[in-house]
Amino acid sequence: MVDHSELQVPGYEIPPEMQGQVVITTLDRIYNWGRRSSLWPMMFGLACCAIEMIAVQAPRFDLARFGMEVMRPSPRQSDVMIVAGTVTKKMVPAVVRLYNQMPEPKYVVAMGACASSGGPFKAGYNVVAGIDKFIPVDVYIPGCPPTPEALIYGMMKLQEKIDKQSIRQVRWYQKGPDSVQIPVPILGPDLIDPRRAEELKRIAAAQAQTQEG
Ligand code: SF4
Question: Which of 46, 133, 165, 192 could be bridged to 186 by S-S, CB 3.0 to 4.6 A?
Fold first, then answer.
């Protein structure tokens, strides 16, 4: 059921006999309303937080109320990536590749302490200190794990963020490449971010010089 008041721009009077059938709105508002009311999350989870994400889709919490019940098993059909769980170095290349494969407009939610900052495993040799080191995050949800209610609240915050966007400014309508393509990190003995290649070369050269001296 469409709530017409969500779309109606204040200041334009609609005659009483036409209320509920006609709205006067802006292109931005109807465009944002359409996208924020049908966000399709990607269906994947990384660790314990994913259990809470699954609960959100079950009848007790029911994300279908927000038009978000269609979890897609393909990044090509997904609007939002919920990074739910501990992000190990081994998984980062896969997560970045999936992000690159999502079409614009796309959003990322970091669910829980692990995805936001490494959480209880931050000091671990095999864990990254937050997925935002590699892909842009729109909403962070604190907690270990966040409750299903917290995830719903985070998704509502994402909706608020979408409400504030304008098609004149969003990156996917700008000239140039229509997507943020992030170089996929290389997993060797440790994880290497190709964007830091020059910096790492400089550090290695400086260390080699120190050892020679
Ligand atoms: S934040 Fe807590 S519940 Fe979520 S994946 Fe990390 S350890 Fe598990």
Answer: 192
Question: What's the gap in Å between 41 CA and the centre of ligand 1?
Answer: 19
Query: For a substitution probing ligand 1, which of 114, 126, 128, 141 has the most ligand atoms within 8 Å of its CB?
Result: 114
Arithmetic mean of pLDDT, 80-106: 95
3-state secondary structure of 192: strand
Q: What is the mean pLDDT of residues 54-77?
A: 93
Copy the structure tokens of residue 126: 């095999």
The confidence score (pLDDT) of residue 178 equals 61
Q: Where are the alpha helices (DSSP H) in the chain?
A: 4-7, 27-36, 49-57, 92-101, 112-117, 148-163, 197-212
Are 34 and 22 in contact, with CB atoms under 8 Å apart?
no
Q: Tell how far the Cα of 185 is from the centroid of ligand 1, in angstroms.
A: 23
| pLDDT tens digit sequence for 179-205 | 678 999 999 888 999 998 899 899 999
Would you list the DSSP string of 10-35?
TT----GGGTTT-----HHHHHHHHH
48 CB under 6 A from ligand 1?
Answer: yes
For residues 152-165, average pLDDT: 96
